[in-house]
């Protein structure tokens, strides 16, 4: 499912326009990003938790040349599925 399909599904299920559904999805995405940026976590009981994952700087290898390279530290958003979501799969 892509973003357009998700917006259409939200629109139909909630009985709102596609523009309203897209605005709601955008607001949700921004809330996740803003919360994770503050080293916080966003928990939706039964669905899952979005949190900040920090990766330390490390050494790696270029698979093409075998040359050693330095990989910078980075941050990303991590999702952990909740109990209800796991059981529904």
Which key phrases capture this entry?
HU Protein, Chain A; alpha+beta; two-stranded antiparallel ribbon; 89 residues; 5 strands; elongated; 2 domains; single chain
SSE arrangement:
Elements: H1 3-14, H2 18-37, E1 41-44, E2 48-55, E3 58-61, E4 68-71, E5 74-81, H3 83-88
Antiparallel strand pairs: 1-2, 2-5, 3-4
Overall description:
The chain is α+β, with helices and mostly antiparallel strands and 89 residues long. It has two domains: 1-38; 39-89, HU Protein, Chain A, CATH 4.10.520.10. It is 43% helix and 31% strand. The protein is built from three helices and five strands; from the N terminus they run ααβββββα. It has helices at 3-14, 18-37, 83-88; strands at 41-44, 48-55, 58-61, 68-71, 74-81. It has a three-stranded antiparallel beta sheet with strand order 1-2-5. Strands 3-4 form a two-stranded antiparallel sheet. A hairpin with a 6-residue loop joins strand 3 and strand 4 (68-71). The longest helix is centred in the N-terminal third of the chain and has 20 residues, at 18-37. 0% of the residues are buried.
